[in-house]
Design a protein that fits this description.
By secondary structure, the protein is mainly beta. 11% of the residues lie in helices and 30% in strands.
């Protein structure tokens, strides 16, 4: 039983076999957990997974493409830095560069 008071929770299966309330989790997929629900997590062969979540963050959030911040000026600075190639990339992640879109195809909040 996943007993945690946070309303915003999710499971991310890294590897192995696991179910939540009898529903199979898919590797590398985020599974949202309903607020207030105490889900039953089971595994027959073992699994590595991550429980994400916590209390909702207070204050306004700005989302633009892959950038999230509580301040719009930080979003604009991130956009400038991405265009300029100033982000430090993970090791071995230099084969492809995704340019900053003019209009993101994701949900955006000003």
């Amino acid at each position: 039983m996943i007993d945690h008071p946070a309303d915003e929770r999710a499971l991310y299966l890294i590897e192995g076999d696991a179910t939540v309330d009898g529903n199979q989790l898919l590797p590398m997929h985020l599974t949202l957990l309903a607020p207030g629900h105490l889900p039953l997590l089971t595994s027959h062969a073992g699994a590595r997974l991550m429980l994400c979540g916590g209390a909702p963050m207070e204050g306004e959030r700005h989302v633009w493409w892959n950038f999230v911040s509580s301040r719009r000026d930080r979003i604009n600075e991130a956009k400038r830095a991405w265009r300029a190639g100033e982000f430090i990339l993970p090791p071995d992640d230099h084969d492809e560069f995704i340019p900053l879109p003019e209009v993101p195809l994701t949900v955006s909040y000003p």
